[in-house]
User: Which sequence fits this backbone?
């Protein structure tokens, strides 16, 4: 492909007048795979997949800090280097509610729910040709468990994913055994997380940070900071006939106008997680483009410090939660692209929408909630309201949340003075509980499981919530390996969290993606998963 173009060169290419081709028929998605079996591949169709071509992609993410995906799970790293890696498990790229195999051909849970055995694919090679084995998997998992190195501060969510592991064994070259202190219903969902990948034990982590190497369908080629990253086809990939593409180029373009222009001319074939306001532009001006709206596993929320008067009064917190117009929050803050929800993430654990609409804070018409909120304020001795300070970050996405919430709280007399500070300082102040109300940007649920965002409401929550029943329910549901039993415990926990109203969910955001029709076998889902591109192909 030659030298990687810079963002300015991408702009220059817009003058080329490239236009997208005709709209071919789409290949159907794969049949769902059964848990513990290899991931299904797309069914053959009248139009057979083609080999070759470079997929050009742009995400909304800025530059990654480095390219070591084992230590840095964040979106900028994940979205551009994941094609070079594989995990033991993955979420099915065509049926996102299912967990299927990647490097592990199958897996088993012991009857006591505390031991998981992963049976690895044979013949898998690292990109340098050396064999992948259970020793590499053991090395990687133990690296994520280890918290002794202060440089591993970036592993916070991975430490949560690895929580409760007491031992990792490699009884033979093709078997990995993981033992937990207690049964954990979220263990397998965490193991399928997009950034929980395997790394070679023979390559130092410092080297992976600049020259990543995995077992994925694509091999790292080059990275030009602030411009682009290239990966190329791995001819020795362990799935026969994959990948179809010759390579992928990820362009790092933060400016939305530039991104849209490059997509319009066909320089970009796929744009992921762009601003929702661009959907209308695409539908009007690029009618052949395919727009996908999917669950993002990100949520809008705000927090109230349960240790600071008068917010330590549960009636005040309930009133504040109740008065906020959540559908208005979706329109104003998510530009109409989101869904009502509670702490439970979208998917199998979520409450039905018809049930959510009956809950305080979600009811329509809104005056029912406003009237009840004012009554709670009066009962707490604040019928005329009170003044408070709302901490947020001095950046547009956070400030929008703060302004919206201040306007909402004013309806019951809560006058919130905005304190907008530098982002790093905001994070420090919030972490130590030095706030009354905090208006945050998006929260992140890394997997479609309630454990994916437990740091917001678990024992170490930042809002000072102390509710032993909630914490007991967290432990009980996580020890439940039966899904029906776990859902019952989770919904009880969810109800109690809404009653406590210290962390208040406004909505669950949607992810907006667009591609030209020649991009086949790509189904969008989540900003934290589905970045392997193993089955994607180009029709021209």
Assistant:
């Amino acid at each position: 492909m030659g030298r990687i173009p810079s963002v300015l060169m991408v702009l220059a290419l817009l003058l080329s007048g490239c236009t997208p081709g005709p709209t071919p028929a789409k290949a159907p998605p794969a049949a769902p795979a059964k848990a513990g079996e290899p991931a299904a591949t797309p069914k053959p169709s009248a139009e057979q997949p083609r080999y070759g071509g470079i997929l050009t992609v742009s995400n909304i993410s800025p530059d990654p800090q480095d390219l070591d995906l084992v230590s840095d799970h964040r979106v900028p790293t994940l979205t551009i280097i994941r094609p070079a890696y594989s995990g033991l498990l993955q979420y099915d790229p065509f049926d996102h509610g299912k967990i299927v195999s990647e490097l592990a051909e199958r897996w088993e849970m012991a009857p006591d729910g505390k031991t998981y055995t992963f049976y690895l694919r044979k013949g898998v090679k690292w990109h340098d040709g050396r064999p992948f084995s259970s020793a590499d998997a053991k090395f990687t998992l133990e690296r994520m468990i280890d918290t002794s190195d202060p440089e591993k501060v970036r592993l916070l969510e991975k430490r949560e994913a690895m929580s409760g592991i007491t031992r990792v064994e490699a009884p033979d070259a093709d078997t990995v055994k993981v033992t937990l202190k207690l049964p954990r219903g979220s263990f397998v969902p965490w193991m399928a997380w997009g950034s929980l990948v395997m790394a070679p034990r023979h390559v130092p982590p410092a080297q992976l940070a600049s020259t990543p190497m995995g077992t994925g369908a694509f091999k790292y080629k080059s990275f030009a900071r602030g411009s682009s990253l290239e990966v190329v086809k791995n001819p020795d990939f362990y799935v026969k006939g994959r990948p179809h593409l010759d390579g992928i180029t990820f362009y790092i373009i933060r400016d939305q106008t530039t991104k849209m222009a490059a997509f319009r001319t066909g320089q970009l074939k796929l744009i992921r997680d762009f601003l929702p306001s661009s959907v209308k532009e695409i539908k009007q001006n690029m009618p052949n483009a395919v727009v996908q709206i999917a669950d993002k596993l990100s949520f809008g929320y705000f927090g109230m410090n349960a240790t600071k008067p008068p917010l330590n009064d549960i009636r005040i917190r309930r009133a504040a939660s109740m008065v906020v117009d959540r559908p208005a929050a979706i329109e104003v803050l998510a530009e109409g692209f989101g869904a009502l929800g509670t702490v439970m993430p979208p998917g199998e654990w979520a409450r039905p929408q018809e049930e959510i609409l009956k809950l305080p804070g979600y009811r329509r018409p809104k005056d029912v909630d406003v009237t009840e909120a004012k009554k709670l304020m009066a009962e707490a001795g604040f019928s005329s309201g009170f003044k408070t300070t709302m901490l947020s970050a001095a950046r547009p996405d956070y400030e929008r949340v703060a302004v919206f919430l201040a306007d909402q709280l004013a309806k019951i007399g809560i006058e919130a003075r905005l304190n907008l500070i530098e982002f790093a300082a905001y994070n420090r102040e919030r972490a130590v509980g030095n706030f009354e109300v905090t208006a945050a940007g998006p929260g992140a649920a890394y997997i479609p499981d309630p454990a994916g965002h437990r740091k917001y409401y678990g024992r170490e929550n930042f809002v000072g919530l102390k509710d032993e029943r909630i914490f007991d329910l967290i432990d009980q549901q996580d020890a439940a390996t039966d899904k029906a039993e776990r859902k019952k415990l989770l919904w009880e926990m969810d109800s109690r969290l809404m009653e406590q109203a210290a962390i208040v969910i406004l909505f669950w955001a949607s992810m907006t993606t667009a591609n030209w029709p020649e991009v086949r076998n790509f189904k969008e889902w989540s900003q934290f998963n589905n970045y392997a591109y193993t089955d994607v192909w180009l029709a021209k």
Summary: The chain has two domains: 7-21+48-289+516-538, 295-510. Residues 1-45 have pLDDT under 50 and may be disordered.
